[in-house]
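> run fold Putative membrane protein insertion efficiency factor
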Amino acid sequence: MCRDDDDPHETAAAPRKRYSRNFDGPWRKTPDRLIGTALVRLYQLTLSGFIGNSCRHLPTCSEYGYEAIARHGLWTGGWMALFRVMRCGPGGTHGLDPVPEKLGSDLLWYLPWRYWRCSASRR
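> ok
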């Protein structure tokens, strides 16, 4: 069968989307965010295999940390990730817990303990 390149019903093959278990949306690639996401990725490639799949949340704690740092920077995202890991332990929370796209005005950089309730307040 001959193919006609001018056929209006023919659709071009869509480019394959690269699969990543981490956040693949747009984010500013500042030095602190690159260092933070690199540390999370290093953990994922090395230590995560020894610890196993024991996270009680979706996305997992390391995926949450990667996305939090990518979206909100190393300081804010790092605190959010730390508190998420603390909530993941025995007796902690479980279930769907995405990284918030925007942070409330009460979450200030010099009051890091307020990030504890960042996602817990949405329950």
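The mean pLDDT is 81.
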